[in-house]
């Protein structure tokens, strides 16, 4: 009787997980199927039919439109997300390491301000950031999107947690005894040991910048500087008057999720517990 109840419990859990997986994957399945359809099948609701396979034509239209401006937007998004996430991860991990390993006056009060920054929505900061960009002359430049991406209060908080859990104080003391300076200790010892935290912050920030829409909308007016999110929105706005934009929007959206999938699949190997196991003897 007990084994029967256990089997029913496992079956119920598996059914719930299956439903959740289908619910999660359905939008991606729809996107893959819709990217192969022309405007008529999209607007007619025949997304999941086997008729009207037109992926090659959609890709050619995407490439040819305005001399391939879509792939310029793609490159802009890679620049914003890649450089911004890398810089933000370094800043966050360094700040979290300092908050965890060093003692200085007003540390906890300063960290409380960092936590306060976590509570502020990014949209509320867009207007102050725009005014600062006006003062510094960086409006409608790459820097207008890149510089705000370098700061992430949640990344600092997360990095402090990882630093406390992954970097034993004894290892840092051993490095200092061997003659390593503070910067060398952080770069060669601390950063390597907290690499799972670095990757976590990188992926969070990469995804946030890649999907960021409001800040580029406020900062940029030159279409050549648009990221994918803003460029696809511009096309979607035109689709109401010209339905031929719909296949390009859907196909472009499918290509837009590819870097996120690659980033998560490639970097997930760094998410391993116990990287410092055995480092203290």
TrEMBL record:
Keywords: Cell membrane, Membrane, Transmembrane, Transmembrane helix, Transport
Topology within the bilayer: Multi-pass membrane protein
SUPFAM superfamilies: MetI-like
Transmembrane feature ranges: 12-32, 78-99, 111-133, 139-158, 193-213, 245-267
Organism superkingdom: Bacteria
Any Pfam family: BPD_transp_1
Domain ABC transmembrane type-1 per the UniProt entry, residue ranges: 74-266
Main location: membrane
Compartments, record wording: Cell membrane
Keyword Cell membrane appears in the UniProt entry: yes
Family recorded in the similarity comment: Belongs to the binding-protein-dependent transport system permease family.
Protein name per the record: ABC transporter, permease protein 2 (Cluster 1, maltose/g3p/polyamine/iron)
Native source species: Streptomyces globisporus
Lineage: Bacteria, Bacillati, Actinomycetota, Actinomycetes, Kitasatosporales
């Amino acid at each position: 009787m007990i084994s029967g109840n256990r089997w029913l419990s496992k079956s119920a859990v598996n059914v719930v997980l299956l439903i959740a997986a289908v619910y999660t994957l359905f939008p991606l399945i729809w996107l893959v199927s819709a990217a192969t359809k022309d405007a008529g099948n999209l607007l007619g609701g025949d997304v999941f039919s086997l008729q009207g396979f037109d992926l090659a034509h959609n890709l050619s239209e995407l490439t040819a439109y305005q001399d391939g401006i879509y792939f310029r937007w793609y490159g802009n998004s890679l620049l914003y997300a890649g450089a911004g996430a890398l810089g933000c991860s370094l800043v966050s991990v360094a700040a979290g390491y300092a908050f965890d390993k060093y003692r200085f006056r007003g540390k906890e009060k300063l960290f409380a301000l960092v936590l306060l920054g976590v509570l502020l929505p990014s949209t509320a900061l867009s207007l102050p950031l725009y005014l600062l960009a006006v003062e510094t002359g960086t409006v409608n430049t790459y820097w207008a999107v890149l510089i705000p991406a370098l700061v992430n209060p949640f990344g600092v908080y997360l990095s402090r947690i990882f630093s406390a859990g992954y970097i034993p104080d004894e290892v840092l003391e051993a490095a200092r005894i061997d003659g390593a300076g503070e910067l060398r200790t952080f770069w060669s010892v601390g950063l390597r040991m907290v690499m799972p935290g670095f990757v976590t912050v990188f992926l969070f920030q990469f995804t946030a910048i890649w999907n960021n829409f409001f800040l580029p909308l406020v900062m940029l007016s030159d279409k050549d500087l648009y990221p994918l999110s803003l460029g696809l929105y511009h096309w979607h706005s035109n689709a109401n008057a010209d339905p031929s934009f719909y296949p390009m929007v859907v196909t472009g959206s499918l290509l837009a999720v590819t870097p996120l999938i690659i980033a998560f699949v490639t970097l997930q190997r760094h998410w391993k517990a116990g990287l410092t196991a055995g480092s203290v003897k």
